[in-house]
Write a structure and sequence with these properties.
The chain has one helix and 20 strands. The model is unreliable at 1-14 (pLDDT under 50). The chain has a seven-stranded antiparallel beta sheet. The chain starts with a helix and ends with a strand. The chain has one helix at 5-8, and strands at residues 14-16, 30-33, 45-46, 50-51, 57-67, 77-85, 94-101, 110-119, 126-134, 138-144, 150-160, 166-175, 178-185, 194-204, 210-215, 226-231, 240-248, 255-262, 266-272, 283-290. The protein has 291 residues and is mostly beta strands. It has one domain (5-290): Proprotein convertase subtilisin/kexin type 9 (Jelly Rolls). This is DUF4360 domain-containing protein. Residues 1-20 form the signal peptide. Keywords: Signal.
């Protein structure tokens, strides 16, 4: 997927979706900050769960890989997993995150952290998982809520089986009812079968449902090794952040997402984990918004 720069560049503009069905109300939304993982140079690494409070459900979330080094060492780690984990046993929901080093790797210490977006239960909310399994160097997975009366509130993605040789380059709400993720093998490829999953948390439309966008600067492909984008909900869309998406336009093998952060200002960061002189990017952050 290539996100339209004409749309994404308008960080103040939101896409609001009108529906004939009555809107579902979203209660108080909380962002839960999970603990940092251990900080060392081992790879891969998984964050402790960001756990939703009792009597709430996970809508979406994000992850942050933090490298204790200066550039270019700080760019060698990318996210491999950001996914909602609804409890199936009556326990508390959570959001999970993981990361790994990409060749040439780093000897620096690093850690990873998960963030959960949680809210009171919404009637009819459910999780849809889309999956792509192949040996192709590029994989795309889609998850469809299955009804025009439902929307994607939050999302996630994960790479399995690629042994640290593929990167997430986007997880995004493609249309109101479809979430999509894309991953690329690294510069020297992977000789095997691997898997990309995308997760969509679906529910009846909330009030003022829509998406906001922010784009990194400059808003065209460039050779910057780190590209960061910001946005927020509430300007032309609902005021509550239900989920967050991120994407690299014109990604190259060896580029990947390092930060997808659902703070008061939504943030995504992509890095050149494997050095290149070619142009890539820009990076886009997507707010999934509603009331």
């Amino acid at each position: 997927m290539v996100v339209s720069l004409a749309v994404a560049a308008g960080t103040c503009a939101g896409l609001q979706v009108a529906t004939a069905a009555p809107a579902a109300a979203v209660g108080t939304v909380q962002v839960i900050v999970g603990p940092l993982s251990v900080s060392n140079s081992q790879s891969p690494k998984f964050a402790p769960s960001a756990v939703c409070p009792a009597d709430t459900k996970v809508l979406g979330g994000g992850g942050w890989a933090q490298v204790q080094a200066r550039t270019p060492e700080s760019e060698r780690v990318v996210l491999s997993e950001m996914r909602p984990a609804p409890s199936t046993t009556g326990g508390r929901d959570s959001y999970e995150a993981g990361a790994f080093e990409l060749s040439p790797g780093t000897t620096a210490d690093w850690s990873v952290q998960a963030f959960a977006i949680c809210a009171p239960p919404i009637a009819g909310m459910h999780l849809v998982v889309g999956r792509s399994i192949s040996s192709d160097p590029t994989q795309i997975a889609r998850a469809d809520c299955g009804s025009n009366n439902e929307a994607v509130l939050g999302l996630g993605s994960q790479i399995l089986g690629a042994d640290g040789q593929a990167t997430l380059v986007y997880e995004f709400v493609e249309t109101f009812r479809v979430a999509q993720a894309k991953a690329l093998e690294d510069a020297d490829g992977f000789n095997g079968i691997w898997e990309l999953d995308v997760f969509a948390v679906c529910a009846p439309f909330p009030g003022n449902y829509g998406t906001s966008f922010g784009i990194s600067s400059p808003p065209t492909p460039n050779s910057n090794p780190v590209q960061v984008a910001f946005s927020r909900c509430g300007n032309g869309t609902g005021s509550k952040t239900l989920g967050i998406g991120a994407a690299i336009n014109s990604p190259l093998p060896g580029t990947g997402l390092q930060v997808v952060f659902p703070g008061s200002q939504l943030e995504s960061a992509a890095v050149e984990a494997t050095p290149t002189t070619a142009n890539w990017g820009p990076t886009v952050v997507q707010g999934i918004c509603g009331d």
